[in-house]
Amino acid sequence: MLKVNQNYLKLPGSYLFSDIAKKVKKYREEHQGQEVISLGIGDVTRPLTPTIIKALHDAVDDMSDIERFHGYGPDLGYAFLREKIAEFDFKRRGCDISAEEIFVSDGAKSDSGNIQEIFSDKCTIAVSDPVYPVYVDSNVMAGRTGTYDAPSSRWSDVVYMPCTKDNDFVPDLPSKTPDIIYICSPNNPTGKALTKAQLQSFVDYALKNRAVILFDAAYEAYIIEDDVPHSIYECEGAKDCAIEMRSFSKNAGFTGVRLGYTVVPKNLVDTEGKSLYSLWARRHGTKFNGASYIQQRAGEAVYTEAGQNEIAGLVSYYMENAGTIRDGLTSAGFTVYGGVNAPYIWVKTPETMTSWQFFDYLLNNAQVVGTPGSGFGPSGEGYFRLTAFGSHKNTRNAVERIVSLA
Ligand code: PLP
């Protein structure tokens, strides 16, 4: 009997950003001529930088030449890229990660959604709340989350680690011991980045409880504070309990190019001593034929001196927007968080409005689109996410419009 995967049917509604897109489309159709500014989804807007573009062109040219043509690449990625990643992202920060432990992919969304496959369906997960929705949804699809309670927006078998203004958006250690702990720092959506001491307490907890941490560092490039680690492997013992995922999307603007990687240390094992590295390698080899040669050459160019300078320019461009949003909204009386080590500003909604009500209010009265905090988890209710990924002009206009409502 043909039957769909019943777990998919448990997912409430559509993906958050599809819901937003539908609402905005309807508004645009009904209010033609009104300019809507989106500070909603976390997509970049600046073009790729010259060094990356040149690497892409050169790689395309390679593909036209019989001597330099590349077909399927090595399973886990080209050595020219993996070696640069190991050197720049880890060794230079004092982390003992080798090129062999790096799995090149087409981005952190696929990796953070797929990584759960290598764990038993009996494993329990803990997530900081609110958080990037992919972690929970991919576990729903795999049948690990129990039943959904719509009034509380909670899954019965997920351990939530609330991040609210009361704990300064730093998750407390899980209330029940999970097997898998998802941490995203700097965090999407709150913009909060954990200090080394805070992250170390999670590492110590995971080691003590034989749990694994899935650490998403997609926003690492935005960190400016010295006590915030760029990699979980800066914490002592993390190689024995953590997997790290990274992306080229937010630092180098590869959202349309697609490139990312995951680090799985070779010595990482489950409670029976089974290697996570071998399973992820097996999964990669079976289900993925690699990011293209062209993408990986572009990734390599990120690590050149010119590439590093250019991407620092992109990050500072966006962080100028973060300042504009923070300052503007604060002056208008809003309480805002984030926007210091991350391109996200987490705004407290007015007392009388839920996240979605504030979404509608801004769309209808200021023609500004943001993201309702409740879409990122139950503790996101009463908050609203604005992103710094717009142009300076759009960001200034959006902020002026919001301020003028106050
Ligand atoms: N991880 C987090 C926390 C994100 O916010 C995003 C995108 O918004 C991603 C991963 C996706 O990254 P990629 O473009 O590499 O798939």
UniProtKB/TrEMBL annotation:
Named from the GO MF annotations, one term is: L,L-diaminopimelate aminotransferase activity
Which keywords does this chain's UniProt record carry?
Aminotransferase, Pyridoxal phosphate, Transferase
Question: Is the Zinc keyword given for this protein?
Answer: no
Q: Does the keyword 4Fe-4S apply?
A: no
Catalysed reaction, written as an equation: (2S,6S)-2,6-diaminopimelate + 2-oxoglutarate = (S)-2,3,4,5-tetrahydrodipicolinate + L-glutamate + H2O + H(+)
Q: Which Pfam families match?
A: Aminotran_1_2
Which coenzyme or cofactor does it need?
Answer: pyridoxal 5'-phosphate
What pathway, per the record? Answer: Amino-acid biosynthesis; L-lysine biosynthesis via DAP pathway; LL-2,6-diaminopimelate from (S)-tetrahydrodipicolinate (aminotransferase route): step 1/1
Question: According to the UniProt entry, what is the EC number of this protein?
Answer: 2.6.1.83
Write down the InterPro entries for this protein, in alphabetical order: Aminotransferase_I/II_large, DapL/ALD1, PyrdxlP-dep_Trfase, PyrdxlP-dep_Trfase_major, PyrdxlP-dep_Trfase_small
Q: Which top EC class is given?
A: transferase
Which residue numbers delimit the Aminotransferase class I/classII large domain?
Answer: 35-402
What superkingdom heads the lineage? Bacteria
Q: One of this protein's GO BP terms? A: lysine biosynthetic process via diaminopimelate
Stored CDD domains? AAT_like
This chain's protein is named LL-diaminopimelate aminotransferase
